[in-house]
Amino acid sequence: MAKWTLYHTEGCHLCEQAHALITPLLMSEGSLLLTDIMADKQLIAQYQVSIPVLKNEHGQQLFWPFTAEQVQIFLALAD
Fold first, then answer.
1. Cβ neighbours of residue 16 under 8 Å, at least 6 residues apart?
2. CB under 8 Å, gap of 24 or more: what pairs does 14-17 form?
3. Which entry of 30, 38, 56, 58 is 20 to 30 Å from 1 by CA?
4. pTM strictly above 0.70
5. Distance CA 5, CA 23 (A)
């Protein structure tokens, strides 16, 4: 099971940037779940104006814009 979820949507250049920034910082390949908000009306309502959003398994969220340093801190705090 993924420890991290990245809420995104297809064609979102900010989401692509966030994914590229996050991926090398994760310890394992399978620890990031990509969730397209367009698949769920509730997710659209919740995240349509704030994607990309990185969420940990405890429900804490990191909203864009974020830097690699901010992601590293977010990842470390959730462990």
1. none
2. 14/51, 14/52, 14/64, 14/65, 15/51, 15/52, 17/52
3. 38
4. yes
5. 11
Looking only at the bridges linking them, the beta strands covering 32-36 and 4-8 are parallel
Q: In what order do the strands lie in the sheet with 53-56?
A: 32-36, 4-8, 53-56, 61-63
Residue 76: partners with Cβ closer than 8 Å, 6 or more residues away? none
Residue 25 structure tokens: 């910082």
Residue 29's pLDDT is: 63
CB-based contact 21:59 (threshold 8 Å): no
Alpha carbon 34 to chain centroid distance? Answer: 7
